[in-house]
Design goal:
Helix content is 31%, strand content 2%. By secondary structure, it is mostly helical. The chain has a domain of 48 residues: Orthogonal Bundle (Arc Repressor Mutant, subunit A). A two-stranded antiparallel ribbon has the order 1-2. Helix 5 packs across helix 6 and helix 6 packs across helix 7. The chain binds a DNA duplex through helix 7.
Length: 276
DNA sequence: TCGTTAATAT
DNA sequence: GATATTAACG
């Protein structure tokens, strides 16, 4: 039963995080108050720049807006050092980002689901093989665990959001749980990842706050109260690298700016809707 | 070099 | 304690 070959692609787009959803994240997650606490200030633009479309460079370059870099006595490092020797900030796998990850793996198949391939498919600027490898490792464990639980019929529930917050957020393809199919390779010639999506990156130099944000509209009319404690860090999106090679991916008509163009569609649930 | 696993750091 | 990064190994 494979009828969603074309659907896959189409669906992907739909599944991609809408600008609206990312906006809240991409926007300044740091509340003015919090900023003061950390002595942060926006020397750039407090309201003019809607979305600076940060690049890997910005990534590795939290700029002065964030807390200090490494606490190494004013080493400071010049300041404009290319993201070469700089250590990338901790990457937070948001549900959307993870979703993309799962999507990529699904299309590739467990067989070809290797860090490098996945990374390429995801086409997330800044995302490194290590990032994917690490996540893949965790993801595999999750799948394995899921099987063991679903099977033995232990006493615990099969789906424990508390056990795997992130993973539980994304639907796991069925063929993920069962071993490969000998004699039949279902490989999708899928190419050219829909780079129209913009996975969100959340770098947290110091604070480690976990927040759940996701769930699209139309499913559960459950709205969480925007009671964010206000402890998020700088966030930025990715994708959009000008590939020197390759046939320049056609950028969708996506507008990067328009912070709050619409007012009614924000379904940011602080909690993964405990429907399970 | 790449992928996987274990250990370490935050 | 959970999650991501780094190191070591195949």
């Amino acid at each position: 039963m494979k009828e969603d070959e074309s659907n896959w692609l189409s669906r992907w787009e739909e599944q991609l995080p809408s600008p609206d959803e990312l906006m809240p994240l991409s926007q300044t997650l740091i509340t003015p108050h919090l900023a003061l606490v950390f002595d942060l200030h926006n020397p750039n633009n407090p309201q003019s720049t809607p979305l600076p479309a940060p690049t890997p460079s910005s990534l590795a370059h939290p700029s002065s807006s964030e807390f200090e870099n490494s606490g190494d006595l004013g080493s400071g490092a010049g300041g404009d050092e290319p993201a070469r020797t700089l250590k990338r900030p901790r990457l937070v796998w948001t549900p959307q980002l993870h979703k993309r990850f799962v999507d990529a793996v699904a299309h590739l198949g467990i067989k070809n689901a290797v860090p490098k391939t996945i990374m390429q498919l995801m086409s997330v600027d800044g995302l490194t093989r290590e990032n994917v490898a690490s996540h893949l490792q965790k993801y595999r464990l999750y799948l394995k665990r899921m099987q063991g639980h679903s099977n033995g019929g232990g006493g615990l529930a099969s789906s424990d959001p508390a056990t795997d917050h992130l993973f539980a957020s994304s639907p796991v393809p069925a063929h993920f749980l069962h071993p490969v199919r000998p004699g039949q390779d279902h490989f999708m010639p899928f190419v050219a990842p829909p780079q129209s999506g913009r996975p969100i990156w959340v770098t947290h130099p110091q604070l480690q706050q976990q927040f759940h944000q996701q769930r699209q509209v139309g499913q559960v009319g459950h709205f969480g109260s925007p009671h964010s404690n206000g402890q998020f860090e700088h966030s930025f999106m990715t994708r959009q690298q000008a590939g020197p090679r390759m046939g320049a991916p056609p950028p969708y008509g996506e507008d990067v700016e328009s912070g709050e163009a619409n007012g009614r569609r924000t379904v940011l649930t602080l909690f993964p809707t405990g429907d399970d």
